[in-house]
Amino acid sequence: MAVSDSEYGKMAKKISPPSPKGLNIIKAFLIGGIISALGEGLGMIYERAGIGEKGVKALVPITLIVITAVLTALGLFDKIAKHAGAGTIVPITGFANAVVSPAMEFQSEGRILGTGAEMFRIAGPVIVYGSCASVIYGFIYWIFQK
Q1: What is the distance, to the nearest Å, from the Cα of residue 69 to the centroid of all Cα atoms in its chain?
Q2: Which residue among 98, 111, 120, 137 has the highest number of C-beta atoms inside a 10 angstrom radius?
Q3: What is the spatial distance between Cα 19 and Cα 116, in angstroms, rounded to a whole number?
Q4: What is the three-class DSSP state of 106?
Q5: Which of 55, 38, 37 has its CA nearest to residue 46?
Q6: Would you tell me how many other CB atoms lie within 10 Å of the CB of residue 96?
């Protein structure tokens, strides 16, 4: 029995439970806010430790990336992301998770063709397009500064 696309869509909608959008938005906002507050807290700690402004600007994202990588390796980040949704994707933590998760998943295939190749499958386009966009934006900024 062939089912048309519209019939299939109706059947899937009928079977699938509705997503609690309001609750999901609140969770994403709160957990994303907690991640941002953690970054601010780290910045204050580093400033009080006597680290200069440039050092703080470098250490905060590095620390957040390391924390995310460790939580991903322990399997905890996915549990947090399950509840937080976009709250964990938007900050730098989402990017760190996107690099570490495939690397762990394919490590049995070897360091080069497993971990090395798969690690950048998701993150690679972000790195490439982010770098290209920054060059274009920098060039436009330079033109308007003249």
Answers
A1: 11
A2: 98
A3: 36
A4: coil
A5: 55
A6: 22
Locus of tokens 């966009």: 133
37-41, long-range: CB within 8 Å, 24+ apart, which pairs?
A: 38/64, 39/64, 39/91
**DSSP tag of 16:** S
Kindly state the helix (H) or strand (E) to which residue 50 belongs, with its residue range.
Answer: none
**100's tokens:** 């570490």
- Reading the block at residue 68, the tokens are 């995310």
Burial 116-143 (b: 16+ CB within 10 A, else e): ebbbbeebeeeeeeeeeeeeeeeeeeee
pLDDT digits (tens, 9 = 90+) for 73-106: 888 988 888 888 878 876 678 778 877 777 777 6
Q: Where are the alpha helices (DSSP H) in the chain?
A: 5-15, 21-48, 53-73, 76-84, 86-89, 92-105, 117-145
